[in-house]
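Worked example 3 (structure in, sequence out).
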């Protein structure tokens, strides 16, 4: 087993509107958020994605500066980069997608390098499930861990392909809203049961400011979200969460339910930084020392001895 991480996802332009600010065509996409989170762990990783000629080289340099291999990022001449636009409600929990343009992603066929076709840890980030499946077909051996993330756009528009991809992975990470959309169940615990019945081994339900839960067989684990005085922009928090989770798993190499509890704590901690600034801005200045301080704060908030009387 190696500790290589292969992240598949979008490199994109985002236009984000919140009650407090607006940013147009900034660095976005699931792969950017995930890779920046994984980079905290100083492990060998690569990104598989596609962009158009309009994508700034400075955005790619952000990844290479953090030793992320971008040799599998295809630049399509004459094409435009994937674009997403969304608006958040006042409570910052509700989001409306205003526009999604697949652009270069529409006819994209990923091509894996020999260096990462044998990666032990695969993160199938939030993008077209057709691409997720094409990546799995190119792996030279079964990885130690395959994590899949998705969103309502793919759930609604490509349900059959997404269902096929989900059957081939180890861990599904979705929001409670996405779990309901995937299963048709209004209660997220019943949604988990239905996903388990489909053969999903591990399920992570992200509940935003209410934390996250890990499910495996008859076991479950809960990690709260860190309390924050101010939330600027929730965009990419789920992708950051996924990158933090798989980064920790790859760093430790321990594929067990108990170790996934630690990974969940790291994932929640990294996601808490993401929402402090708009887009990827906060992740670009994040230090390991800051992560550890907040991780220990999470430990102080949650660990205690129960006195039985």
């Amino acid at each position: 087993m190696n500790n290589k991480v292969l992240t598949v996802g979008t490199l994109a332009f985002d236009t984000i509107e919140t009650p407090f600010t607006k940013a147009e065509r900034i660095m976005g996409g699931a792969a950017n958020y995930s890779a920046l989170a994984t980079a905290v762990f100083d492990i060998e990783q690569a990104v598989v994605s596609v962009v158009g000629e309009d994508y700034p080289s400075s955005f790619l340099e952000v990844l290479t500066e953090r030793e992320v291999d971008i040799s599998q990022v295809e630049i399509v001449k004459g094409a435009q980069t994937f674009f997403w636009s969304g608006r958040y409600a006042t409570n910052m929990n509700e989001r409306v997608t205003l526009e999604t343009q697949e652009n270069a992603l529409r006819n994209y066929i990923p091509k894996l390098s020999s260096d990462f076709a044998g990666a032990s840890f695969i993160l199938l980030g939030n993008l077209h499930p057709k691409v997720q499946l094409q990546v799995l077909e190119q792996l030279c051996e079964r990885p130690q861990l395959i994590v899949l993330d998705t969103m309502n756009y793919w759930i609604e528009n490509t349900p059959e392909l997404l269902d096929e991809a989900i059957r081939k992975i180890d861990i599904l990470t979705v929001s409670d809203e996405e779990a309901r959309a995937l299963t048709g169940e209004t209660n997220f615990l019943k949604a988990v049961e239905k996903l388990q019945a489909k053969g999903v081994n591990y399920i992570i339900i992200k509940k935003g400011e209410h934390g996250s839960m890990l499910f495996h067989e008859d076991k479950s684990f809960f990690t709260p979200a860190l309390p924050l005085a101010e939330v600027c922009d929730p965009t990419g928090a789920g992708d950051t969460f996924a990158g933090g989770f798989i980064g920790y798993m790859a760093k430790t190499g321990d594929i067990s339910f108990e170790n996934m509890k630690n990974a969940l704590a790291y994932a929640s901690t990294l996601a808490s930084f993401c929402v402090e600034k708009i887009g990827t801005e906060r992740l670009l200045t994040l230090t390991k020392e800051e992560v550890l301080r907040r991780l220990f704060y999470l430990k102080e908030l949650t660990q205690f001895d129960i006195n039985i009387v």
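Notes: DSSP finds ten helices and 13 strands in the chain. The domain at 5-302 is CATH 3.40.1190.20 (UDP-N-acetylmuramoyl-L-alanine:D-glutamate ligase).
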